[in-house]
Amino acid sequence: MWTLARSSAAHHRRSVIGVIVAVLLASALTTALGVLIESGLRGGVPVQRFAAADVIVGAPQSQPVPDDVDVPFPERALLPQETVASIQAVPGVARAIADAPVPLVGDDGTPISGHAWESSSLTPFALTAGEPPASDDQIVLTESVDASVGDSIALAHGGVATTYTVSGIATAVGTEVDRPQAFLTQQALAALWPHAGSVALIGVIADEGTDAAALADAISDAVQGVVTYTGTARGDVETLEGATARTNLIALSGSLAGVALIIALFVVASTMSLSLGQRRRDIALLRAVGAEPRQVRGLVVREVGLIALAASVVGVLPGYGLAQLLGDQFAASGLISTDFALAFSPLPAIGAVVLMVGTSLLAGLVSARRPSRMAPIDALGDAHVETPALSRGRVITGVTLIAVGLVASLLPLVIPGEAALAGPASAALAIVIGAALLGPRIVEVTLNAAGPLLRRLPAAAAVLADANARSFTRRLATAVVPLALGMTFAIVQLFVPATVASEAAAQSAEGTTADLVVTAPAGGLAPSVTVDVASIDGVAAVTPRVRSSVLVNMGVSEFDVNIVEPAPIQGINPAIASATLDLGVTAGSLADLAGTDTIALSNSAAFGLRAGVGDTIDVVLGDGDKLTATVAATYERGLGFGDYAIDAKVLRQHTTTGLNDQLLVSTRAETDAVAAALADRGLQVTSGADLGAAGAEEAAAQSWASVVALMLILGFIALAVVNTLVMATTERIVEFAVLRRLGATLGQVTAMTFIESVMISVLAIVVGTVITLPPLAGIAFAISGQPLPTFPPVTFALLAGATLLLGILSIVIPTRSALRAQLTSSA
Fold this sequence. Notes:
By secondary structure, this protein is an alpha+beta fold. It starts with a helix and ends in a 9-residue tail after the last helix.
């Protein structure tokens, strides 16, 4: 049986090559996304600043979620100052050194990380010139800063500049530190550190001969409320970007992997079915010479298993290269840091091989089931014709999936705000799979409408194309479905973010009544800058704005379901916010938003939490502190300004820098004069109309990363489409030969396939577009109240043009190759 399976594969080289290509590409794609997901769990950034520390001690930096991965805090969680002494008392600790970094900015806008000189031994840094700082006006700089010993240098913190004298130049020993560093006295740093009585991290240098892992366990046992890090894990806590990068990678790769995996399995299954469908005559002959159904199925399993196993194993090799390519592109977009190391292991490859082989075997068994069970005479009669009717189960499944997708698209009619986005976002996939199952019926209905137009054309090729399409609706559907799938996937992935971003920008523009937005050249703005700006002639009101994120459990406590998600939060001055912002308050008043126990919610967040004005909610602030607050107001412009708002004085205490992000300024005089006065103070000034929506920068980074991953998946779909269409076309050599014998010219046959390719491509464009309209309309209605999604015409034209060109070339070129075959091809 194995010999027969190998002979069968060798005899059907064209269709086998098509199957190999499909399985290989799907295996590579699955492996690449598997590597990215694993990297989100095990990857990380290398340690730099704490390279000499055997153990790093920090506060818990993530929120545990039952039955799910922990969610990292977006701000630095702090430790009490007295924790340093507690750690120092643990046996085996030589030195416990606190670190409390502050962001500094040079005259040229270069970000510099400021630390106390004592913490320099955690890297370590060594002086190459000069001496340590001896007074509060002295500073040691690393070699990457353009300064020499004795120079005066102005460094700003929060927009307030201080002049220091350079007392020394230092360099890292035995490691590399990317960012410029500055070292001050402990007293000078304490004056800038906004969280008195707390430290960010504690580096531990162990006694000689002490095992780092054992010491970390001893510290965890002796000191409550701390988390210890050793080895490569130290890079995870040294900067917040490490943990955030892993979370972003898991979220993006996970969301894309689900869709990509379904697409890959669908492509493999359909290609395998097409290949076996082209061999119905061989199966019929086997049945005619006495082969039992189980023997036929055994032959199919062996042949499919051999092909799928070999192709999937080969495919995992380029999969690892694709993962590295995607990682580089994600780093370039800012989604992960440039030094984030991906985790490479055999697990993604093993998973890809198992999935591809399993899917291929299942598709092979399903495709061989009917012809292997038919009587030999019936099987021979059925070998050259298609069965027009669809099975009842297939029709019911297809109709059900389409109905489910349509119902999910209508969820925004009954569920307001962003909470309703999940339904329409997944509806397109359900509809497109349902349409694929009903593909031959959809093609038949379309041909009934378009057939009369084709038959009225004087050219014989149009009549031939119409007759061929009607006789082989399954074959036509096999070509239409992958093209429509690619069109649908591209529209959803590109137009949904565009719709959300457009509405967010509109809400931000409508709600910003300030004339000017003031920021620092880099970093934030100290509270004292607010007072200084307010004193400028012509300034009517100044609202400090602090931006961060909170963690909110949007699950259902009654059923013990936990869904913890980060959400944007802003801090404002409630007393004067109405002079610069209009959040669209629908209940309560922002004036009541004062103190540590009040909060304002967007209408969407209020619906998700089932809370209103006067109710109490629980959230986790960015640094891990829990906040129980009473809802003082609800507002409608949550997409533009964030779902949550509290007093800026409260939120600043729970951010890493302790600074304001922006100042919103309303003027009562000439705006240009006020802007000039602000610029003279070294501040950056833009128009209030340019204020970005909440989370716009993060969304832009994720959007570009999504586009990169989308191009990879669309590339896979395009190659799969070409592969499928080439397989279907090259197997028509006998059909083309019969047409030539009956008198059809070479030009007529070529024109016939050209018309068929145009029909296939246009139908795919129409079907792919129509499928996306209900979900897109639902998403637009959920966020704006109007079922009008953002539909960029240029982008749509490019997608449609690419689909049309791909469909035509994938059929016409193989047709010309097939027509070169001898006219006497065996029938």
